[in-house]
Structure formats: structure tokens, C-alpha cells
Amino acid sequence: MIIITGGAGFIGSAMLWELNRNGEERIIVVDDLGSTTTGKWRNLSGLHFTDLIPIDLLPDLLDRNALKDISAIIHMGANSSTTETDADHLLNNNFGYSKKIASFCMAHDVRLLYASSAATYGDGSNGYDDSIQGVEGLRPLNMYGYSKQLFDCWAIKQKILDKAAGLKFFNVYGPNEYHKGDMSSVVYKAFNQIGEKGSLNLFTSHRPEYRDGEQLRDFIYVRDCTRIMAWMLENPSVAGLFNVGTGTARSFKDLAKATFSALGREPVINYIPMPESLRDKYQYYTCAEIAKLRAAGFSEAFTSLEDGIKEYVQQYLSSSNPYLDSRKSPIS
């Protein structure tokens, strides 16, 4: 049996889909679905699993050993809002809850994969090296990133990462992110804005070395993320912290052009001033260092930005059913 916390969320439900595609249905989803208006429940409607458990019940069930034959926990559940202002809420959800799950896994020899975040790297001035030695020197820019760093540091000190794998996700996009609101990907927002206005707004640059729209990110398709996690489940000796990105930085202008192309439209891009409140915190460059992941044995190629956006837009966002469904597979 496999447990996926946050299993109704974006990456969690995509991982559920990945496991279903690989023939695995003995899965317990741990999540809260929230309001029906978010549509989060739809992430599960085309997928197969054994049970659905509320988030707050899992620690007690683990304490009582009420869940039997658990082979792995994929811990994707967290408050992922980088603008969340309730520090105690983030601390309890992203640090305290994670410690309980990790402690159970270590005590019962259960494979653990958990979501860290590229937000731990802060402004990137210390680079994007995923070595364990550099974790304590990182300075996240927000409480979300700090809550993830706290757990990474704790996991290192407790030697959790001798057996578990922590995944530092970069800019993930793809199907089943529709409930995320302001925290959804730029690709999803671009698709909606182009559909509504016929054009797309991007921020101007306030640094001379970057032209407008040339700010860079490591955009990774969610299917690549789930392939990495599936590979890690098949290779339990792989442990430590790992960046989950493509290792290639692409510009927002590239993303915009790819989205227009997937829609069969000519690009119409408007550049708007960046809000003053963002200018001191804005990252102009992020790119995952993936040498460690490659050295561990993951050799598959990553989906290009153009191919990922094309599939996402044409097979999902433009479809009457944009959700991942275990009964159908993407063309690519």
C-alpha cells in the first residue's frame, strides 16, 4: 500500500495518475478537498485509489498502526502559498506534520519521498546546489520557503535523508493545477489571459542585464516530476535532497510564445511595470542543478517547454475534460 499526502492536489494527484498508469491502485489518498467551488475534488474523479482520509486523521492512524502493509509514503501535502502570512499555520503544516510522517517512516522502514521546494534557495545568490552541506546557509525569501528549509535541516540532523528523498520542485506546470488560484503556473494563467483578452501581460525588467520578458525560470512539466518520483520508488537506495527541474532556464517570453503557438495564434505580448512591492524580492534567474539526480541514475530526457505546453494546452486545457484520467493516456 502507498500513501500519498496531498493526493488530491496538483503534484499529488498527478503522481496518483502515474501510479495508476503503472498498474498500482492500492493507494490511500490523504487530503482535504475544501470548497466544491475550487473543483479540487475533480482531480480525483478519473483516478483509482483504495481510500480517502482527511489530513488531520493520518498522524493518529499512524501512531496506532491502523494502516497495514504500507510500503511507501509520498508526502506532497503542504500549504504551498508563498504569500501565506500565518507563520504558525505554515510551521504546523509544513514542519510539524512532516516530522510525524518522517518519524513513522524511519521507525517502520517505509520508503519516504517528500516535497521540499526551490523556494528554499531564496534569491538564488547562493546558487541552486542541492547538496546537503549547503542547506543551512540558504536564506528563503518567505515563510513557506523557510518552513521547507526547517524540515530539510531537521531531516539532515535526524539522518532521515540517509534513507528518504526530498524533492526541491522548481516551476511546475501541467494538468490538475486548476484549483490553485494565484499559486497556479504562469502557463495556466497565460492560457486563461490569452483566451480572455487575446494578449498576454509580462513584467518589464528593472535590471539592465535582462530585457523585458527575458527573466528566466526552470519550468518543468508535471509528468516529468511524476516520472522522477516513480523512478525513485523503484530505486529505494536513492536518498538525499534532489532538485526537480530540467536543468535549463527559459524566459517568460519563450513561455508566452509557446502558449500562443499551442493555441494557433500569433504572439501579442504587452509589458507592464512590475509592482514596487515585488521589485526587491523578484528572482530574475532560477535553474536547477541536476548533476546529482543524473549521477543517482535518472537518465530520461525532460520534456521541452514547447512540447510540454503544447500537450498541456491542446490535450488538457482545450479539452472538455482537462483532468488527468487513468482511463486515457496522452498522445506523446
In words, what does this structure look like?
This protein is 34% helix and 14% strand. The chain is an alpha/beta fold and 332 residues long. The protein has two domains: 2-173 and 219-246 and 288-298, NAD(P)-binding Rossmann-like Domain (Rossmann fold, 3-Layer(aba) Sandwich); 174-218 and 247-287 and 299-332, UDP-galactose 4-epimerase, domain 1. Helix 7 (252-262) packs across helix 10 (305-317). The protein is globular and about 55 Å long. The model has no long low-confidence stretch (mean pLDDT 94).
In short:
The chain has 332 residues and is an alpha/beta fold. It has ten helices and 13 strands.
Task: Draw up the topology in text.
Blueprint: E1 2-5, H1 10-21, E2 27-30, E3 51-53, H2 58-63, E4 72-75, H3 87-107, E5 111-115, H4 143-157, E6 165-169, E7 171-173, H5 186-197, E8 200-203, E9 216-217, E10 219-221, H6 222-234, E11 240-244, E12 250-251, H7 252-262, E13 269-272, H8 276-279, H9 291-296, H10 305-317
Helix pairs in contact: 1-6, 3-4, 5-7, 7-10
Tally the helices: what do you get? 10
Query: Poorly predicted ranges (pLDDT <50, ≥5 residues)?
Result: none
**Name of the CATH first level of the largest domain:** Alpha Beta
What general form does the structure show? globular
* Strands side by side in the biggest sheet: 3-2-1-4-5-6-11
Q: Overall mean pLDDT score?
A: 94
Strand content: 5-15%
- CATH superfamily heading of the largest domain: NAD(P)-binding Rossmann-like Domain
Order of helices and strands: EHEEHEHEHEEHEEEHEEHEHHH
Please give the radius of gyration in angstroms.
19 Å
